Amino acid sequence: MKLKLLGSCMLIFASGKAGFAIARSMCERVALIARLQSLLQFMITEIDFALTFFPDALTKVGPALGAEIDSFCQQVVEGLEAGVPLSAAWEEALIQLTSNSPLYADDIKPLLSLAPIIGLTSRQDQLRHIKLAQEHLRQTQLQVEHEVNKNKKIWRYLGILSGLVVVLILI
Questions:
Q1: Within a domain: residue 2?
Q2: How confident is the model at residue 17 (pLDDT cuts 50, 70, 90)?
Q3: Domain limits for position 24
Q4: Mean pLDDT, to the nearest integer, of 78-91?
Q5: What are phi and psi of 157, to 5 degrees?
Q6: Total domains, the chain
Q7: Using 50, 70 and 90 to split pLDDT, how confident is the model at 138?
Q8: Has residue 73 been placed in a domain?
């Protein structure tokens, strides 16, 4: 009897933990989109005022915006140092960011649209496109926040309740 109770508790705990992990991943997605907006804001500042070289700017801002963004910035810089064009390095780093984080492919579409523009057009044109991408990211963040607020509790409850259902079936 004690063994059944222990197994039941472990099953409920494990399924609950899975539900909470999914909910946490959804919240991390919102935070990551906000940090991408901060990256774009930093790029606006560097292009408009500081006139810093792009690799130096990415190296400087990456660590301040978290591990995922730092990894993204490092991948872009490493691609540039390897002789890869900026647009290709940018796109490849974005694809890696999507595969290694809770971001969806649709979340990075505004950043992918910057690939052919960054470093190849005039300063004013780059600023215009970056501000536009930043606005698109802000809209995406609002949509994702709405989705997270709607689904976060559902995933938490679903994790715990699915464990309870399995326990009831097994008993």
A1: no
A2: very high
A3: 7-170
A4: 88
A5: -65, -40
A6: 1
A7: very high
A8: yes
Burial class (CB in 10 A: 0-12, 13-18, 19+), 94: buried
Determine the Cα–Cα distance for residues 123 and 54; give it in Å rounded to an integer: 12
Look up residue 61 and give its two tokens.
């801002």
Using alpha carbons only, give the angle 141, 142, 143 rounded to the nearest 5 degrees.
90
Rounded CA-CA distance 145/166 in Å is 31
Q: Tell me, yes or no, whether 1 lies in a domain.
A: no
- In single-letter form, the type of residue at position 128 comes to R
Tokens of 146: 């709405």
DSSP reduced 3-state for 34: helix
Query: E strand or H helix at 148, and its extent?
Result: helix 123-170
User: The tokens of 28 are what?
Assistant: 């991390």
Beta-carbon contacts of 79 under 8 Å, excluding residues fewer than 6 positions away, are: 88, 89, 90, 92, 93
Q: Reduced to 3 DSSP states, what percent helix, strand and coil does the chain have, rounded to the nearest 5?
A: 85, 0, 15
